[in-house]
Amino acid sequence: MTGCVSGWFGRTVALSVAVGLVFGVVAYRYLVEGVRVLQKYPPALDARGLAVSLVLAVAGYALVRALRPSAAAERPFDWAALRLPGTLYGAMFGTLAATMVVMLVEPTVFAVTVREGQFLSIATEVVFIAALWVLARTALAVRRVAVARVFGLRPAVLVWLMFLGVAVVLGEEMSWGQHWLGWGTPELFEGNLQRETNLHNFYTHRFEAAYYSAAVLLLVLVPYAWPQRAPRLLAPLAPYIPPPSMAVLALPLCGLMYNSWNFAAYQLWFFAGLWIALDLWRHAPRREALAAAAMGGLLAVSQAVFVLFGGGMAEGHELTEIREFLIAIVVWGYALMLAGRLRAMAAASAGRSAALGARAQPRTA
Description:
Layout: H1 7-31, H2 47-67, H3 86-105, H4 119-141, H5 155-173, H6 178-181, H7 204-225, H8 244-250, H9 264-283, H10 286-309, H11 318-360
């Protein structure tokens, strides 16, 4: 991807093209094919299905062109200071690669490894707990820091709000302890799709669409698009926005689809992820460019495998469980990044306060 869409008018046109194409696909499928927006069914690989994918690939390209920072000098490539642990990249890449291999060799294995109460479900909950631990320690460490406020709220308050959000996700993930303690489902939750003590399985498809789309927006698109010099209204958010390395780490969240491949929004995220990987491969520092190329390449190849061979899965929803595990890893990575950034700001703030205090001391003869 070369150049960028310059000016607000060009960005608005590109964004309008992306939105228009997505709504056009949704309208076509509903009016012509009778398919609802969140209706799950096997991937359409006929001429019409491939044409729709091509349209959404163009929409993803337009979206990325609209979001790309306006000049190379403004791109927030502070990679060295905010480098995430290599083990996180390894976990994301390895999980996606292993999922692809299992899909090719024996996809029925997923049914006994990723369902509720099995290995991957427990691992997801453990990683979310690790993220909560990091957020809690960070909030306590910066409780006296007054800089980096957003809407007047101190960093500690903001981190505790993040803690609360992750705790709610974890609570829903483990059905508020039912998976571990095994109590009977209360009568209030009898209408639950899986007869569990949670809210998200009352509206599973809608919750999944909102949850997964929010993950892609916050963990892929925003880190990629955030400029070094943000508009004044958004500038206070800058300390909490992850660097482009987070977008590379989170690229696998744009894939892992089989019976939801036909969702227009999901294909938009997938193709946008590929265009972002291509752009970062061309413009990021060498080490990060290679990471973007590797993750983007695996994203493309694995999604082709899931589309072609996903019918071999025993239950059909196994890939969504794996995506939730990867979301937990990226949230943990964000918590680690935020901890390092806010602790550094706290140390700098304390150093400035000490320096000012020393200057204020009266000089003695």
